[in-house]
Amino acid sequence: MSAQKKIRRITVPELRARKGGEPIVSLTSYHAHTAAVVDKFADFILVGDSLGMVMHGMESTIGVSLELMIMHGKAVVRGTKRALVVVDMPFGSYEESPEQAFRNAARIMMDTQCQAVKMEGGARMAETIRFLTERGIPVMGHVGLTPQATNAMGGFKTQGRTEDTWQIHIDDAKAVAEAGAFAVVVEGVVEPLAVKITDAIDVPTIGIGASNQCDGQILVLEDMLGLNPWTPKFVKVYGNLGGMIEKAVEDYAKDVKSRAFPGEDQVYR
Ligand code: KIV
C-alpha cells in the first residue's frame, strides 16, 4: 500500500469553518501553470473577472463573457489539486433573475468542475444567493467596492469614507451571509468598516484593500507579482516579474540578432 497521502481539495464547509480562525490565504489565477504554483499555498483560488483587464487588455470587467470565464476556469481546475476553486459570474450572467443565475452558475460548475461561484452585490442579490445555495451551488458574496458597478459608482472609489454610509454596507454583507453565502469578499472599504462587517457576519470575510482584521485576504496575482504597471495603492508587491520578463526578452533579442542563439546545445541533432 502506498504511504503517500492522497491530496484532496479544501471544501466549502472547511473554508466556512475558518471564520475567526487562521487567516484564509487566497489569490486570483487565470491559467493552469500559475494556478499550480498558487495551489501550494492558497486555501482558495479565484478565477476573477479581473481577467478581462489583466489577461485581455479590457478597460473594465464589463466586457467579460461567460465563455471566457469558463475557458479560464477549466484551465485553473486542471492545474490544481488542493485549493478550492471559485469562478466569478461575469456581468450580465446573473442579475436578471434567480433562474438566469442558476442556469449560468450550473453551466460554470458543470463545464469547469469548480467548487463554487462568486457574485457581486449585497441585499439586492440575497434572493438569488438563497435560490442557488438551496439548489446545491455554493456562492461567495462580494460587497463594498463592486467593480461590475463602477459605471454606476462613478469609478473605483473607496467605500465607507463617511460613517453615515456604513450601515448600507453592513446590511449588504448581512443579507448575503444570511442568504447562504459561505464567505464574502469585502473590497475597497475603509478599515473600521471592514472590521464592523467582519464582526457582523458569521461567515469569513475576505479582504482586498480593506483590513488585516478580515478573516482572509485576496490579491490579484499579477498585481502582487509586479506585472501590472498600474498597481493599485493597497497592493503589496512581492516580486518584479514585469522587470524580469523585460530583461529576459531583451537578452533573447540580443542573442538572436548576434546569432548567439541557438547555440550548440539548443538544436536538434
Ligand atoms: O475579479 C477579481 O479578481 C475579484 C477580486 C479582486 C476579488 O473579484
Compact description:
With 269 residues, the protein is an alpha/beta fold.
CATH superfamily of the largest domain: Phosphoenolpyruvate-binding domains
What's the main sheet like?
8 strands, parallel, barrel
Specify the CATH class of the largest domain.
Alpha Beta
Q: Specify the overall morphology.
A: globular
Strand residues, percent: 5-15%
CATH topology name of the largest domain? TIM Barrel
Report the count of strand segments: 8
* Structural domain tally: 2
Bound molecules: 3-methyl-2-oxobutanoic acid
Order of helices and strands: HEHEHHEHEHEHHEHEEHH
pLDDT below 50 for ≥5 consecutive residues: which ranges?
A: none
Characterization of the model:
The chain is α/β, with parallel strands linked by helices. The chain has two domains: 12-238, TIM Barrel (Alpha-Beta Barrel), CATH 3.20.20.60; 241-269, no CATH class. The chain has helices at 12-16, 32-38, 51-54, 66-79, 98-112, 126-133, 150-153, 166-178, 191-200, 221-224, 241-257, and strands spanning 24-28, 44-47, 84-88, 116-118, 139-144, 183-187, 205-208, 216-219. The chain has an eight-stranded parallel barrel with strand order 1-2-3-4-5-6-7-8, surrounded by five helices. Strand 4, helix 6 (126-133) and strand 5 form a beta-alpha-beta unit. The radius of gyration is 20 Å and the shape is globular. The chain starts with 11 loop residues before the first helix and ends in a 12-residue tail after the last helix. The structure holds 3-methyl-2-oxobutanoic acid (KIV). The site of 3-methyl-2-oxobutanoic acid has 11 residues, from strand 6.
